[in-house]
Design brief:
The chain has a single domain, classed as 3-Layer(aba) Sandwich (Rossmann fold), CATH 3.40.50. It is about 40% helix and about 15% strand. The chain contains seven helices and six strands; from the N terminus they run E-H-H-E-H-E-H-H-E-H-H-E-E.
Length: about 200
């Protein structure tokens, strides 16, 4: 069976504060490291992992390192910038309420990942979507038949992958809340890719 396990990074200080992260070098909280270690312990018992990939941002690197502390025999990771969160450029670091003041027409019930603005030194929604679609194609090509691979990434990427697999509107999917920190989204890659579970936290059970 060919399986891809997509993991969101552990809780960061900016997650806790409600800041827009984008590509910022944000570190994990103690809770985020504990989440990643718990995930690693579950992963080591539930799967034999053949390949590990990760976004190259600090929070995903730290999550991957913490997972490897408790998952014996996990392969060394390959870091891939195409798995990054949407780049928010000059808006990185703003609190959610500050963003709401800057963009009063934005629906506050929706994630700022849907913000229809091209931030200076950042990515438009279209650029982000196109990058994730290319990254997804690369992931599915990378995982060999019969392998189990883990890819540590970000909430926005996971939401767009869900849209790809379920033929949902990407904009509507981005507007939804991100899956939990250190959640697992499982995709079966035998034949047509199939979403097995989304945003699960089996390491809490």
């Amino acid at each position: 069976m060919t399986t891809l396990l997509l993991v969101r990074h552990g809780e960061t200080h900016w997650n806790r504060e409600g800041r827009v992260q984008g590509w910022a070098a944000t570190g994990l909280t103690d809770r985020g490291r504990e989440q990643a270690r718990a995930l690693g312990a579950w992963l080591g018992g539930a799967h034999t992992v053949d390949r590990v990939l990760s976004s190259d941002l600090e929070r995903t690197r730290a999550t991957t390192a913490a997972v490897r502390e408790t998952a014996d025999g996990l392969p060394s990771p390959a870091f891939d910038p195409s798995l990054r969160e949407r780049g928010f450029g000059v808006y990185q670091g703003f609190l959610a309420e500050e963003m709401a003041d800057r963009f009063p027409d934005h629906d506050r019930s929706k994630s700022f990942l849907t913000l229809a603005v091209d931030p200076l030194n950042g990515e438009s929604v279209t650029d982000f979507r196109d990058r994730v679609e290319r990254a997804w194609d690369g992931l599915t090509d990378t995982v060999a038949d019969g392998e189990t691979a883990v890819a540590v990434t970000h909430g926005g990427v996971l939401k767009l992958v869900r849209a790809i697999l379920t033929a949902r509107d990407p904009q509507a999917t981005l507007a939804q809340s991100s899956p939990p920190n250190c959640s697992v989204t499982e995709v079966g890659l035998d034949g047509t890719p199939e979403l097995v579970r989304y945003g699960a936290t089996p390491w809490r059970d």
